[in-house]
Specification:
Structural class: mainly alpha
Helix content: 55-70%
Shape: elongated
Largest sheet: none
Distance between the termini: 140 Å
């Protein structure tokens, strides 16, 4: 076994001595690249600066819309949590004071419906405490006609409607 490793070492030393006797091959690729003169790109490969500006503006608008969507999702989630905790005033304040309440959501969408729900539930809690609460009746008037709470709020408003003491009557012209 020792003789095999000795012969292997001799073969390696013989190949190393053969490589040392040959001159080293130098690649001149780097020299060729460095010697080339830089060519200016032809005019047809360039694009105008306005394209860069338009792309930057589009990217800015896209990121703004994305951020506004995230804010809307956060406000909606916080309002849902407030309604679940029966803190209707906080939900109303969040949804009415949202930075983009209706800009990114169509009519009848979730944030607007949550606001209607919070208004209705808050008004009902106030009316249960005091049946003639004017603030509660004003909240019921704020509910949109597209909401599922609209009919319920209109029924309650009709129950609390008081006709005016003075009413006007029209006189017909008789010819």
């Amino acid at each position: 076994m020792a003789s095999e490793s000795d012969t292997h070492k001799k073969d390696l030393s013989a190949s190393n001595s053969a490589n040392e006797s040959q001159p080293a091959k130098v690649s001149h690729i780097l020299d060729e690249v460095l010697e080339e003169v830089e060519t200016v790109a032809p005019r047809h490969n360039r694009h105008p600066l306005i394209i860069d500006l338009a792309m930057a503006l589009c990217l800015l608008l896209t990121m703004g819309a994305f951020s506004a969507g995230l804010i809307k999702m956060y406000v909606t989630h916080s309002a849902e949590q407030s309604i679940n905790q029966r803190n209707y005033q906080a939900a109303i304040a969040l949804l009415e004071g949202a930075p983009f309440p209706d800009l990114f959501s169509p009519p009848g969408s979730e944030p607007r419906e949550l606001l209607n729900q919070a208004l209705y539930l808050d008004a009902m809690a106030k009316l249960n405490a005091y049946s003639e609460d004017p603030v509660a009746l004003k909240e019921l008037e704020k509910i949109d006609a597209s909401s599922r709470f609209f009919e319920l709020s209109q029924e309650i408003l009709k129950e609390h409607f008081k006709p005016a003491a003075v009413q006007t009557q029209s006189t017909e012209n008789q010819n």
